[in-house]
TrEMBL record:
One of its GO terms (cellular component) is cytosol. Gene3D superfamilies: 3.30.70.920, Winged helix-like DNA-binding domain superfamily/Winged helix DNA-binding domain (1.10.10.10). The gene is lrpA. PROSITE patterns: HTH_ASNC_2. Residues 5-66 form the HTH asnC-type domain. InterPro entries: AsnC-type_HTH_dom, Tscrpt_reg_AsnC-like, WH-like_DNA-bd_sf, WH_DNA-bd_sf. Keywords: DNA-binding, Transcription, Transcription regulation. PANTHER family: HTH-TYPE TRANSCRIPTIONAL REGULATOR LRPB, LEUCINE-RESPONSIVE REGULATORY PROTEIN. It comes from Dialister micraerophilus DSM 19965. The lineage of its organism: Bacteria, Bacillati, Bacillota, Negativicutes, Veillonellales. The keyword Isomerase does not apply. This is Transcriptional regulator.
Amino acid sequence: MDKLIDNTDLQIIEQLRKNSRITMKELGEKVFLTGQATKNRVERLQDLGIVERYTINTNCPAFGYNVHALFHVDIDFGKKSELVKFIKKASSHILHCYLSDSNTKMHIDAHFKSIEETEEFKAYLARFGTCHTHIINKEIRGTHPADE
């Protein structure tokens, strides 16, 4: 994969991570290319599957989701498919969900309006295995470092 992309491609990716709404002209100025050359590189990165989508970050507390929690579930034998089905249908307050360790552990990153709502979610997850919850006090660095 490293031979498919160069330093300019890496700079383009970093700029898109900071602001996916940037114009090709502005992006080109930042990486010292013309707007058209930049557009061609971005399209190539998309064709290679390196750039998959353009998305937004939301400020969950700004619209009432003040509790940020991480859940770690040790999934009971035979309950994985039911848990995955539940997560796929669950509310949009789930930001990320990962399976790890031979698909026997699930990690969920979610926001809630209250501690009570968080506890209800944890109680439901306990139907699928042992659940550990961590309430987040402060984010140090997110996946999209726009302000760095």
